[in-house]
Design brief:
247 residues, alpha/beta, Rossmann fold, 7-stranded mixed sheet, globular
């Protein structure tokens, strides 16, 4: 079933896909600055936790889904030094920023990285191609999440791991209320200030609130066929790292 990722209600997939491409293509060059400012730097700690939970070896092929400007791929390169990383995203402009980081700044730390525009809901890769799949802030923007998870399961080798970082639901009621206020008011403020596109960050705020909580998303992973499903809450549940395996 496809949904409107802004509301969580059933809707044609094209509505959300086109919206996401329009928003991210226009802010690609300022996306990293927004992440740093709006999270007060916490996103770097979240990536470190993601790497601690990632079972990635030196001989592994890694697929980074919805990899954007490359933060996750570069974290994998630094921490794990795998054989190869395939960095994919729906938005070409985001990948161009990632490519710049590799060609001009060597953020890949010498690890071979290839770039490809890919819709994660219909991936062009062969069955059982990758030892690990990483994804951060991606599944929330996909209108057919069940199909995307099925595709990830398909391209993983048996025993392979999915490591997924996503915004989530704080467990404490007071913290949750404060966070919801921040989402509704400060995310659009920071987005408008940094990129000049406040409307795009109104969408971001709403899509985070509409995304399933940790338990519900874990159930989606199990329904897609994954085993050993678990999650670790970060910053009181503002974000969570979900891990799962293909047995």
């Amino acid at each position: 079933m496809s949904i409107d990722t802004e509301t969580g209600k059933e809707a044609p997939a094209q509505i959300s896909s086109e919206r996401v491409k329009d928003i991210l293509s226009s802010i690609a060059k300022k996306y990293e600055r927004f992440n740093a400012v709006s999270s007060f730097g916490a996103y770097k700690l979240w990536l470190k936790h993601m790497m601690k939970l990632a079972d990635i070896g030196h001989d592994d092929d890694v697929l980074d889904v919805a990899g954007g400007t490359g933060d996750v791929a570069f974290a994998v390169a630094r921490a794990k030094r795998p054989r190869h990383i395939q960095l994919t995203d729906l938005v070409p402009e985001m990948l161009e920023v990632a490519r710049y980081h590799v060609e001009r700044e060597n953020k890949n730390c010498g690890v071979p990285i290839d770039f490809q525009v890919v819709d994660a809901q219909d991936m062009p890769f062969d069955d059982e191609s990758y030892e690990a799949v990483t994804m951060a802030y991606g599944i929330r923007n996909m209108p057919d999440r069940e199909r995307a998870l099925s595709e990830i399961f398909r391209v993983l080798k048996p025993g392979g791991q999915l490591i997924c970082l996503e915004f989530s639901t704080p467990t404490n009621a007071l913290w949750r209320a404060l966070y919801n206020f921040y989402l509704a008011h400060m995310i659009p403020f920071w987005g408008g200030l940094i990129t000049g596109d406040k409307s795009g960050f109104v969408y971001l705020s709403k899509s985070i609130k509409a995304f399933p909580d940790q338990k519900t998303f874990a159930a989606m992973l199990r329904a897609a066929g994954f085993s050993d499903v678990s999650w670790k809450n970060l910053t009181g549940g503002i974000a969570a790292v979900h891990t799962a395996r293909k047995k």
